[in-house]
């Protein structure tokens, strides 16, 4: 098929808090021998995109020059060109998803042990070390792109590539069993609302924590059994104990706020698990509690970040079966700055999704 020579892309301008997004015309890239070119129909907007666009993590973890200012790592669309080495894997017209991890080496210990590929030291990341999905056409490693199943629309699949995947894997890492309690602070947000749904679908009893009537209604509609409004509840720990008797079996900290990390261990029952997901830009924030609390309650603190290629397939299957659906706020490339501000102020309900291709 004949492809256009140029395309629209959202490109970072400036640095720090004052950086902005400008939509420009740039050349359409060409896939290498082991790559596919994907026409991006939709891309989710992740809190990590905001952190990269606003340099919240400092120069040590910022967008590499080769990104040319194009962030985004939750892309979904259709394959429009296939590299010469991978024509047995993909055909033009296939639907594909692009994730935070765009490529791995497939040779190191982490790639070959069957469970730890997310820690490949040579991994390539969309929007961090290569151009991301805030453009109409993006190249990606054909071996690591995700095939999108029937029954999952592109506007849903995009946010699942990171938001859904991250929430699903965090639920698995919590080790909470069916019928046991899990607490999800920030449950009405981009990751939290996914977490509520996956946890419920996996048989967990969900206590959602967030603020305001809109977030309460959303969380309860998605399957949370209990809702705690942090804006009106004086003692959240006491409320969790009232509901669970001994404390929750697990808590997932999706928020990057200090309060979330400080509070989480004290909500847990003995042998409970705290899952750390949110990435603060304040390096003084730490996970865990005083060693006496940790030892006497035998608490577990684990980290969780995105998921494997197989786990991406697993979490898409929940949507294909009608069990998990992202709550979406729609916009275009020109709305990215606005959505970042809404995210900062807590006004963004669910997940922002950007319509890319016209």
UniProtKB/TrEMBL annotation:
<protein>
    <recommendedName>
        <fullName>alcohol dehydrogenase</fullName>
        <ecNumber>1.1.1.1</ecNumber>
    </recommendedName>
</protein>
<dbReference type="InterPro" id="IPR013154">
    <property type="entry name" value="ADH-like_N"/>
</dbReference>
<dbReference type="InterPro" id="IPR020843">
    <property type="entry name" value="ER"/>
</dbReference>
<dbReference type="Pfam" id="PF08240">
    <property type="entry name" value="ADH_N"/>
</dbReference>
<dbReference type="GO" id="GO:0008270">
    <property type="term" value="F:zinc ion binding"/>
</dbReference>
<keyword id="KW-0479">Metal-binding</keyword>
<comment type="similarity">
    <text>Belongs to the zinc-containing alcohol dehydrogenase family.</text>
</comment>
<dbReference type="InterPro" id="IPR002328">
    <property type="entry name" value="ADH_Zn_CS"/>
</dbReference>
<dbReference type="InterPro" id="IPR011032">
    <property type="entry name" value="GroES-like_sf"/>
</dbReference>
<dbReference type="GO" id="GO:0004022">
    <property type="term" value="F:alcohol dehydrogenase (NAD+) activity"/>
</dbReference>
<dbReference type="InterPro" id="IPR013149">
    <property type="entry name" value="ADH-like_C"/>
</dbReference>
<dbReference type="GO" id="GO:0005737">
    <property type="term" value="C:cytoplasm"/>
</dbReference>
<keyword id="KW-0862">Zinc</keyword>
<dbReference type="InterPro" id="IPR036291">
    <property type="entry name" value="NAD(P)-bd_dom_sf"/>
</dbReference>
<keyword id="KW-0560">Oxidoreductase</keyword>
<feature type="domain" description="Enoyl reductase (ER)">
    <location>
        <begin position="16"/>
        <end position="354"/>
    </location>
</feature>
<keyword id="KW-0520">NAD</keyword>
<dbReference type="Pfam" id="PF00107">
    <property type="entry name" value="ADH_zinc_N"/>
</dbReference>
């Amino acid at each position: 098929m004949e492809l256009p020579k140029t395309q629209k892309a959202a490109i970072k301008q400036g640095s720090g808090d004052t950086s902005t997004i400008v939509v420009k015309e740039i050349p359409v890239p060409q896939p290498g021998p082991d790559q596919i070119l994907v026409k991006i129909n939709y891309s989710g907007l992740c809190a990590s995109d905001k952190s990269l666009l606003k340099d919240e993590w400092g120069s040590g973890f910022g967008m590499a020059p080769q990104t040319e200012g194009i962030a985004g790592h939750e892309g979904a669309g259709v394959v429009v060109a296939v590299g010469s080495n991978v024509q047995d894997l993909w055909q033009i017209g296939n639907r594909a998803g692009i994730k935070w991890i765009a490529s791995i080496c497939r040779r190191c210990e982490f790639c070959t042990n069957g469970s730890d590929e997310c820690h490949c030291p040579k991994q390539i990341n969309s929007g961090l070390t290569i151009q991301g999905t805030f453009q109409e056409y993006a190249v990606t490693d054909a071996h690591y792109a995700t095939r999108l199943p029937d029954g999952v629309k592109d506007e849903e699949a995009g946010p699942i590539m990171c938001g859904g995947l991250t929430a699903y894997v965090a639920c698995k890492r919590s080790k909470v069993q069916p019928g046991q309690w899990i607490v999800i602070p920030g449950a009405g947000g981009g990751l939290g609302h996914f977490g509520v749904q996956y946890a419920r679908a996996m048989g967990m009893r969900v206590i959602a924590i967030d603020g305001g009537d809109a977030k309460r209604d959303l969380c309860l509609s998605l399957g949370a059994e209990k809702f705690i409004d942090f804006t009106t509840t004086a003692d959240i720990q006491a409320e969790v104990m009232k509901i669970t008797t001994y404390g929750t079996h697990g808590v997932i900290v999706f928020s990057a706020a200090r309060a979330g990390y400080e509070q989480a261990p004290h909500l847990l029952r003995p042998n409970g698990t705290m899952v750390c997901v949110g990435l603060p830009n304040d390096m003084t924030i730490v996970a865990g509690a005083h060693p006496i609390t940790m030892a006497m309650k035998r608490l577990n603190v684990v980290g969780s970040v995105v998921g494997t290629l197989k786990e991406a397939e697993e979490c898409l299957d929940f949507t294909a079966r009608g069990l998990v659906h992202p709550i979406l706020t729609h916009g275009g490339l020109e709305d990215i700055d606005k959505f970042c501000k809404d995210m900062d102020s807590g006004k963004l309900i669910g997940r922002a999704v950007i319509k890319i291709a016209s």
